[in-house]
């Protein structure tokens, strides 16, 4: 009982000191967390790493306030495809007890959402190196010829092909075959299946010039 009374007195004394302490303001950056992103959507615009807060509270609390103790939550619930301006309200900002949020800047976060779709895209194996002297690189085949990819709708509609790991024909005197991994050209585009293809690179003797044949 005595201990409880003592603790209560300490808390009361601390609060009383805070009430007499100078109220101050401080500006700091707070990280941004996006919540309730629709499952069939992906954000294709740049996401701000932080927003600027102006907060108010007792000077001792503001001096010890670390940006890691704060955070801004932006709710994307129900958002459809396209450009959006998501409002940021002070009630969506997490700060320690005793600190009041005055202003969040900017007050809106612009984001672009695109629907995630799947599509089959042609594979173009990547060839490097030079074949042996007198030889030329000919037809390049991939089996299968297409792969299934997933990604933002507009990006996939503009994507004409995907590439592979490099296939070297350096010094080759005949056809080169290799099983190579398919690579996505864009960060938000994923290769679903197959993850690798068998590529065949035709390497054959360079045709003689027509003038030499007539001789």
What are its keywords?
single chain, 215 residues, alpha+beta, RNA Polymerase Alpha Subunit, Chain A, domain 2, 2 domains, nine-stranded mixed sheet, five-stranded mixed sheet, 4 helices, elongated
How far is it from the N-terminal to the C-terminal residue, by CA? 117 Å
The tally of structural domains comes to 2
Q: How would you name the CATH homologous superfamily of the largest domain?
A: YbbR-like domain
**Net shape:** elongated
Using the CA coordinates, give the radius of gyration.
Answer: 31 Å
Provide mean pLDDT, rounded: 88
List the helices and strands and how they pair.
Blueprint (H helix, E strand, L loop, with lengths): L1 H19 L2 E13 L5 E3 L6 E9 H5 L7 E5 L6 E6 L5 E2 L5 E6 L2 E21 L6 E9 L2 E7 H6 L3 E7 L7 E8 L6 E4 L2 E10 L4 H5 L1
Parallel strand pairs: 1-4, 8-11
Antiparallel strand pairs: 1-3, 2-8, 3-7, 4-6, 5-8, 8-10, 9-14, 10-13, 11-12, 12-14
Please sum up the structure shown:
With 215 residues, this protein is of the alpha+beta class. The chain has helices at residues 2-20, 59-63, 153-158, 210-214, and strands spanning 23-35, 41-43, 50-58, 71-75, 82-87, 93-94, 100-105, 108-128, 135-143, 146-152, 162-168, 176-183, 190-193, 196-205. The strands form two sheets. Strands 2, 5, 8, 9, 10, 11, 12, 13 and 14 form a nine-stranded mixed sheet that branches. A five-stranded mixed sheet has the order 6-4-1-3-7.
Q: What can you see in these coordinates?
A:
Helices cover 16% and strands 51% of the residues. It has two domains: 85 residues, RNA Polymerase Alpha Subunit, Chain A, domain 2, CATH 2.170.120.30; 91 residues, Beta Complex (RNA Polymerase Alpha Subunit, Chain A, domain 2). The mean pLDDT is 88. A hairpin with a 7-residue loop joins strand 11 and strand 12. The chain is built from four helices and 14 strands. The radius of gyration is 31 Å and the shape is elongated. By secondary structure, the chain is of the alpha+beta class. The strands form two sheets. Strands 2, 5, 8, 9, 10, 11, 12, 13 and 14 form a nine-stranded mixed beta sheet that branches.
